[in-house]
Structures
1.
Amino acid sequence: MFPEKMNPLRARRLGIDTHHEPNIYLRSDSSVCKSEGFNSLTRVLVSTEQNHMIATLNIVTGDLIDEGEIGLSESAWEKLKLIGHESIWLSHPRPVHSLSHVRSKVYGHKLNEEQFSEIINDIVDERYADVYLAAFITACGDDKLDDEEITSLTRAMINAGSTIDWGLDQVLDKHCVGGLPGNRTTPIVVSILTAAGLTIPKTSSRAITSPAGTADTMETLTDVSLTLDQMREVVHSEGGCLAWGGSVRLSPADDLLIQVERALDIDSEGQLIASVLSKKVAAGATHVLIDIPVGPTAKVRDDEAADKLANSFKRVADNLGVTLAIVKTDGTQPVGEGIGPALEARDIVRVLKCDEQAPQDLLNRAVYLAGAMLDLSGKVSPGEGEKLARELVTTGKAWEKFVAICQAQGAFKEPPIAHYRYEMLAEKDGTLATVDNRILAKVAKLAGAPADAAAGVDLHVKVGDQIKRGQPMLTIHAEHIGELNYAVDYLQSHLQILTFGE
Amino acid sequence: MFPEKMNPLRARRLGIDTHHEPNIYLRSDSSVCKSEGFNSLTRVLVSTEQNHMIATLNIVTGDLIDEGEIGLSESAWEKLKLIGHESIWLSHPRPVHSLSHVRSKVYGHKLNEEQFSEIINDIVDERYADVYLAAFITACGDDKLDDEEITSLTRAMINAGSTIDWGLDQVLDKHCVGGLPGNRTTPIVVSILTAAGLTIPKTSSRAITSPAGTADTMETLTDVSLTLDQMREVVHSEGGCLAWGGSVRLSPADDLLIQVERALDIDSEGQLIASVLSKKVAAGATHVLIDIPVGPTAKVRDDEAADKLANSFKRVADNLGVTLAIVKTDGTQPVGEGIGPALEARDIVRVLKCDEQAPQDLLNRAVYLAGAMLDLSGKVSPGEGEKLARELVTTGKAWEKFVAICQAQGAFKEPPIAHYRYEMLAEKDGTLATVDNRILAKVAKLAGAPADAAAGVDLHVKVGDQIKRGQPMLTIHAEHIGELNYAVDYLQSHLQILTFGE
């Protein structure tokens, strides 16, 4: 409470990577532990003369830390912008009042915009330990938020970060509600729309629970960590960009929530809509297309669930003043061949270059979505969009635009290639009847995707294909032998990943 | 996957206290990180030649760890029973399959006994990181479990630990559904019942969200960490004991869940009933009294909520074959004067010694509960229990028993006294109208209770008392100046803790 009365501690970088949660390390016999009553895992306010943050305390016995020193994890070190030996003061943070709103939600009460704002602001200030984030995510899980609450949550997430005003009447954006491996249409759609003269400053997330997000995939092709000024420059010159949203602090709460959502693998309709629309509105979008793939092993399993989600999306978008179009697409099997950042990047390049190895399903899906967005924009007569979209690919104009955007973002580079492979061969003749997207995604993740950019799976067959015994069905790619073994083990105990029919 | 192929690492104790979650520390350039693809916060299976455990990995850059070494946190070190320089192998743990059941619960599905068993067994095996425990607790929060699920969860928690068979037809136990500061009746009730010749082998939890649990309080008076053999000996000689349940691994999942529940401060009807009844059944109880204090700022706020909880308790107890009696008691204000382990211990001793400073409300409450249990036992004619209970206190027989039990558990000792105090005086004359139990408990916790045994609050006034300006209303006790300041600051910004009426 009276940090000015305390003798400061000397900062020491311990080099411990605790991911995004900042950790500090103090000797058990340090006077501040005694005077302030700090224990292990206490949340502590850590201040320098310039900055401050909330961190989790670890008590150290033995000689790891000298007397008068405070150890800092990498994220703590970076957050305080330290160089070394700075003076550090510790004190109790104010109680996190917004946790009472999280509890209220657990008890089934409806939250208002002010309550969501308090929660989101505390999250952005990093006052929430991971267990609190886990409780908030779980309390909002499934469909426990109504449309009004989702609107409030979305507004709170927008207001807690930067927003971009492009000064234009029309700014396009799109989002695919994941669950379908591969299906990396966004870079193709952006190339087509910018080639058509429209504006689409695309910011994307990294993967939440999937083997790759658009940002992970694009990162294997160019630089995606753009500042807002860099984004403006790219969009000004090319009409669009393909950037990671996190580096410009659009809806920063989303990036913190996603880290824990990924660990928990819990999706929630409310968090999903708030995550998507907060990013879109913050990025200045006025016209948004939502693509919902539907299939028994996709994220959205049937038409009924898709319509429910679509209606909720529409009502929240209306509340926020966003023009929304929604398309349901086939989610019964992956789109494209590769699953994982670099493998999907390779497919995108092949489609845009009209390479003979290009996956036609990915081309067709991207052209369909770009067409729907051309229709939405009013750029063409209704129903004419798809034709124009296809022309822009076959004439090479979309590919030119793609290379130009990559170069404007830094440089166009080749995606990496994994060193370890495992090929799964068909054990009999037959017709491929089903693909289990969830098992496929899991195999790609176990192989190392998305953290290992070159890791993932190539699926060589499509539902309905006539398969011959001995034919390659899929290839696992990994950067490490341990992860390859792990993915193969899992695959071999989940052979229902591909089933044969008549 | 193939730990035998890996060169072992050398164990090094880092002395970092990460509480119950075991952590390990590896160099980022270590070959196992590369070959197995381990990243920061990966959950890793850590094996010695004798033991194994799941731990959370922290990646270390710089020279904190030597090549070929693995650093271990205190809890990791203890769990593997290391001495130093042992060989350690690392591998990927099997995926935690039971997390799919947690997700299923988030999505509102009902879980069966097998699913709860898988969850609880994985928790006891420490396969759940804290964020997973947080998600499970939140998903079961409020009244999201039905009676059948609570029964399944309770059975799973019983089966995951030790159980005690006393070989007796009747074994008594009691539990108070917290929320009321002070109210430390259990040690008094056990003394009365054992003085009456009944059997009550009492095991208690530490505090979950309150400033003290019975185990915390008893620990200031005697040793509560008894082995099962020690408990049997004490109960054999004295008819009862007052031990901490955690040290005999009765319902060990409960102890792990409580750690995170405490941080989240989320209570759930299902977890509450399962926690209480799993401990009781595992401890061999046949006849159980549940005390539910009811009041606007108690855990249970009104009669309706109390009756709902009581009915759920009864149905689950029926399913488990336990004879249950439930009493609702006055929860409008604290019982006794002290709030915090040592302060409550002092009140207990005063009541049992019939000291003139003994809080009469605590005596009356304990006598009422002990009476209800004498009635339940069939030891007296119905309605005669309370009279006998009071006699056993006034004749000093209960005090004799209490001292004998403490001595049988190790020794009877005096509770500690805090060095720092703050006294709040009345600023005007008036009649005390209300006490806010929640604010009071928060002040006691901010002062350091229960971790600091001597910390807490003495409440010197009762509702209805005529108060004079300048009269001491409450005293904060703290072991550290920082926590005293923190508690006083909170008190001064929450003066609605005590309100005056006509």
Note: Chain B touches chain A through 66 residues (CB under 8 Å).
2.
Amino acid sequence: MKKPIKIVTIGGGSSYTPELIEGFIKRYDEMPISEIWLVDIEDGKEKLDIIGRLAQRMWDATPYDVKVITTLNRKEALKGADFVTTQFRVGLLDARIKDERIPSLHGMLGQETNGAGGMFKAFRTIPIIKEIVEDMKVLCPNAWLINFTNPSGIITEAVIKHFEWKKCIGLCNVPVIAMMNEPKIIKKQTSELNYQFAGLNHFHWHKVFDENEKDITGQLIEHINEKGGGTPVNIYQAEFSLELLHSMGLLPCGYHRYYYSEKEMLEHSIEEFKKGGTRAEQMKEVEASLFEIYKNPNLNKKPEELQKRGGAYYSDAACECISAIYNNKGIRMVVSTQNNGAIPCLSPDSIVEVSCIISAKGAEPIVWGNMGPFEKGQLQIMKAMEECTINAALSGDYGTALQAFTINPLVQSGREARQILDELLVAHEKYLPQFKGKITELKKQGIASKDPVVVDLMKNGH
Amino acid sequence: MKKPIKIVTIGGGSSYTPELIEGFIKRYDEMPISEIWLVDIEDGKEKLDIIGRLAQRMWDATPYDVKVITTLNRKEALKGADFVTTQFRVGLLDARIKDERIPSLHGMLGQETNGAGGMFKAFRTIPIIKEIVEDMKVLCPNAWLINFTNPSGIITEAVIKHFEWKKCIGLCNVPVIAMMNEPKIIKKQTSELNYQFAGLNHFHWHKVFDENEKDITGQLIEHINEKGGGTPVNIYQAEFSLELLHSMGLLPCGYHRYYYSEKEMLEHSIEEFKKGGTRAEQMKEVEASLFEIYKNPNLNKKPEELQKRGGAYYSDAACECISAIYNNKGIRMVVSTQNNGAIPCLSPDSIVEVSCIISAKGAEPIVWGNMGPFEKGQLQIMKAMEECTINAALSGDYGTALQAFTINPLVQSGREARQILDELLVAHEKYLPQFKGKITELKKQGIASKDPVVVDLMKNGH
Amino acid sequence: MKKPIKIVTIGGGSSYTPELIEGFIKRYDEMPISEIWLVDIEDGKEKLDIIGRLAQRMWDATPYDVKVITTLNRKEALKGADFVTTQFRVGLLDARIKDERIPSLHGMLGQETNGAGGMFKAFRTIPIIKEIVEDMKVLCPNAWLINFTNPSGIITEAVIKHFEWKKCIGLCNVPVIAMMNEPKIIKKQTSELNYQFAGLNHFHWHKVFDENEKDITGQLIEHINEKGGGTPVNIYQAEFSLELLHSMGLLPCGYHRYYYSEKEMLEHSIEEFKKGGTRAEQMKEVEASLFEIYKNPNLNKKPEELQKRGGAYYSDAACECISAIYNNKGIRMVVSTQNNGAIPCLSPDSIVEVSCIISAKGAEPIVWGNMGPFEKGQLQIMKAMEECTINAALSGDYGTALQAFTINPLVQSGREARQILDELLVAHEKYLPQFKGKITELKKQGIASKDPVVVDLMKNGH
Amino acid sequence: MKKPIKIVTIGGGSSYTPELIEGFIKRYDEMPISEIWLVDIEDGKEKLDIIGRLAQRMWDATPYDVKVITTLNRKEALKGADFVTTQFRVGLLDARIKDERIPSLHGMLGQETNGAGGMFKAFRTIPIIKEIVEDMKVLCPNAWLINFTNPSGIITEAVIKHFEWKKCIGLCNVPVIAMMNEPKIIKKQTSELNYQFAGLNHFHWHKVFDENEKDITGQLIEHINEKGGGTPVNIYQAEFSLELLHSMGLLPCGYHRYYYSEKEMLEHSIEEFKKGGTRAEQMKEVEASLFEIYKNPNLNKKPEELQKRGGAYYSDAACECISAIYNNKGIRMVVSTQNNGAIPCLSPDSIVEVSCIISAKGAEPIVWGNMGPFEKGQLQIMKAMEECTINAALSGDYGTALQAFTINPLVQSGREARQILDELLVAHEKYLPQFKGKITELKKQGIASKDPVVVDLMKNGH
């Protein structure tokens, strides 16, 4: 018999943790957990305690004897871990508020994953994930790292390629949502269809086949602009051109709207910002109310309210992935892992998001093959943007950060983009030790966001 | 409900057919067949009739109502087929006798798959498989072509890449045998282990992992020189160097003995030839006695004697593959299919033999990733040899045939190799219309094998 | 002795032709021309006659006996040609006016080479260049095609890769201008420096070394924002970020301003348009006045006024290239030719603009080697854009045209971009037979530019 | 004015040095040398002194004031060097005798560059060249390293790729000889023809064009089996198949005989060995007599006798290359340098032997483009063999050495090849510190060559 499992969750104080706990409870019979360690930092202590108590109540309401331990001491938690999940957010939602407000005020997208915001999230996260990997090399050298900290693909590439921790898988809920919702539209069960995905995190396409080996992608394209399709609820549904999609013969992910309808997505984002501030600010309110609910000492299951956030199914996917590894299941999932040739137009050592077989060996990608020039060109520039972002995050080199900003299709390059880069650097000073020299110089030049919300956050030590 | 299946077997008069029939009987409940058409040519009519009657008796001994039809009219058979299997041998075993005797008499390997013999088998087969594909395009445009005519990888490459029939899968029993025998050696069940294969037909390697994700390839290497391992019985077991295999961290297939122990394999082959003639001649005797057994009107199952031939499990693998497609199973099998990046050091449109997921969509390769220079260099030259062979088979160009002979590691290049090439061309004149011009020229120069067995075969119209 | 040369210039009525004539006169001693055929179409007859007379007067003022023949009969001209130069403009400047006005009125770049305008220029030109190549295959199968019709790289790719005319070289004046102007800035002679260029037409970078093998690129970067550098006069000099350029260690071409300073370039372009209409309209005036000058029966040399147009040095580069081929010179020039590995991150059969050795064999690229992710990602998307453009031009498929528009970094994708695409299709109906079906459909939907200038041009049959 | 040049020649006691000196004398006017340092080791002191005195006499007979300094102190010599040439032979000709005798006695090729001997030469040389590069990094960080120690391509790859000394060029006389001799056959001057080479050292092909851009390769193929062609005198002229060469459209180098006529080359080599011992033994005699000539105090120029050795024109090529760098000449030469895409089927960071432009920047390869499967497959396995050889030389891993032996087309793999490997390891113990562990083990097993010549050499401390 295999030994019971020790799970460690970095960023355990996240409002998503109850979904993760629920996922483990559902799968206890196939995957007997002994301990769940929830790790967070000083700033997140209060939330961590609330989550820790709720998580323990959830387990106590089951027949299973599982201990939930909360700690601020990461090293202690990691010792002997079997699976480490990462869902932390450096600088919390306050950092995301800056990521989104500063570009928006300059009339650009503050998009938090692939846009300016996402690149800064990577700049802040990569130094921390490096420390985590270094700890793991010493304290739990056989553990798997299941990452769902965004930008998930970039972080996974840093971990596998740069910090050389091969046992890492990146997760995302976007493919999960597509595979849950699309079949309904054509009155099918997910189990009747074959899905094949390929691309990068938040930038992938898929093809769908029915049980008679017929390619029904074209049929699904016809429905793509309907409500309730595969696009996550947090993305504005600018209309896709069906002629464009048919010429590819592929279904895009929801995030492709930012690339195929740049203009509308930007206009809508600016409009929303003017009406109600950034999505991060809305999230902060949602989170506050979630934590009020979590505090209820009678609550012993995941509350319905959590489902409504954008990140639903993320954690369940993580539990499924962990179980597939533990039980050597050989099931098909879409995850971020090393390319190894699955997408021949990208380097074999790049991290890609593709349909994989998940077993005790980890994720084995299923090949996608050659792409047409349209998908290929976009994919290659997005991977290049990811590489520039990682290079900048590792080196702290300003020119390289500028490369990432210039090459990113969601940033309109030029003087204003540089201004945004500069203001973001200064605004995130606390979390960007690698850029210290440049930030000092920028501050001397008087660079600073004039946005009252940002000014206020910084006054309060963020 | 899906409609019942029509199977067509080209080369239906083969002595292997009873295994195929047995495989379909075993799987009838999951794969209801209505008709099996066995197709052969005039020269094979007698055998075809014997096989046809045995096959019908085998079905009649089951509760299932399946009709076996024998015919010399390929077009009639192909009409509306769902699956077409190819196991024909152009020129029958007599052609193989020439393939093996002519090189052997010049002190070279007559190896019938990757050696001189295999290249000539390809020269003879490619024009015929082209005709079959052309028929299929008209008569059964949705059918799958399951090829196990050797050289299986080369024929599959011709079909998919040159004749553009994408629904083709090539099969081989070598991986099957390895996965059946190796686990026993270390007291494991096949189901407890994860196998990953990559390479070309008769030229692949594999890695093995246990259920705890541990790479146990090294452990299996230690046993590789023992009897009863994964090497097919028809290959002489020259000793592998364990140091060489450990430096790769991979298990070779049995055919690698020809490449890692060239000298012993050649010496043994010549010795065997001197003692007992070629393997083809032995096979001819085995076949004759098998057909005597098949004639027995009371025989209604696959006779034990068949199992002892080299090609066991081939046909069962074919049935399993067909069922996996028909039932959209998503199981793991090792087949020849389009690379699409699974082995990044070969072109995405090359045919490779790799671990795949087999479902209604066909074969989806699982990536293997980068290779070390040793495996990579050998694989690249073998693929180049396959390409030269196909180019020569298609063009009938002598210089290109010479390229194939020169680059093939199992042929020692030079004047004598050219002599072998020339004699084989003349000896196979009947089946090589594409080389007509060159053969006429060679005959004028007086080129002809002086071997009495070859002379005799040719006198008799072969 | 080599036989005297027959030159054919398609689009011979161009205002640039006098520079070409001057270039041939300068080089007569090394390259004895017998005849120059200037070919044009009915619409350009008047200009052709003016140019033809001027060209003949230019030769008559030299000691050389060279005949200038003007004709509307392309086939007659091509017969036995040694070198064919192409500098035609399908639809003349009126077409360019539409290319630039329609996007500008929607607030987008009408950039005539890599932007929306450039893609439409390719849509119009590719069917015509195909006819020219087909004529050449019959009438002058050994001739060289020296293309300077824009978008030069795309047209050259169509000719070499799709129409399989290998003896084609694409030319551009941008590298010539850089190599003429940059050395002066640092008080050097061009001959003292080693230049290496790589990229695509209007999208390349270069490195510069001095005679002591020292890389002085960084030194030149420091001067890049000064007036009089390597940027063609027709491009607005938005400021480059020196930090960005230093992080690459490369000098960009002037057109990179559109990619590194998207926002300023767009704003400036719209502003200019509001002030003075499009550049095409200005060009039309310049041309009219040039032709007035050309009419002067006493003029027998290239007038000074021509030098001031954007395209200076183009024709001289063409003459130099022709002489290098004719005289097997082995000199170094920057041209568009087949990659063949010079830029490993692009396909070997792509057309690229790189430093080459020009000799009787044509252009042999000098390798550039691997690129960093920033340059690589941009180059790959630009090449993909070129490929989508060619695919759309060849197929007339609307979805593919939309791919080209969506992937082009100078077009902001979405509903408005589709509107621009649609209006341009309708506006250019006369020159886009391959898109006939879609244009008919668009017209039924009432798509049409409402711009009075465009409306007027169309009324007059353009 | 540039400063005068300091040349350092490692292995200065070589019998080839007078050609090098002659080359520098011829070019003094364009390349003013101040000092030539000849470096050797204790074992070569006597020869070094003889060469040093001859070299000084050669300079003294010219109007130029150049000082020749001989030394056993490499570090002292390297200080401030401008160009370092390497032509040393670890273990001298005695080592080569072992390299050739041991395989020959087992009936295999002792070929000293690409065969078993060449791999051992690499095993011995790579540790030493590593030390030289380390010294250079400290003592002459701007110097160029011009290598002509064999196997020249492998050594150059070790220097550039593994020891990261980019300013290194590898030289060989094989292309020089081809370009000198071939034109005569067709009554042309070298200067009238365009040559393009690509491949690896001792494994390359070339195409030839005349001054009218006509490919005359086929015409030269017709003459390839005649005496006095491009093959170095030390290679047995087994007949090439013209049909094979025409199918490629390429001229092979002389060493290709080993690959296209394996059998004859092996038989001839064994026969020669039986008649007259190894080529190394013959060379040793030639050398002894050369040094007798060199001792003559009246000799002050390169003696005719040197020309007759196999390595002629090597040193002159080195001088020409040095001058091209020093004078920023931009001339065309065939050298070993980093691929960078010139041969797309090999990695951009591999070292290849190709036509290059040589200037102050070093060697810039001219692209070759895609290859057919025949050339491609062979080239890829040869590069893989080189990589395995370097990996074994660096690691001292026996399994990896076995990889190199197994993959090498000139070694027939198997038990006997392993015996050769083992005997060579033991025989070269003195020069293979990296294999110490394995050699000790082999000696314990009693492995030793029984050849009296080898036994004798070892007794004498070699």
Note: The first helix of chain B runs from residue 17 to 26.
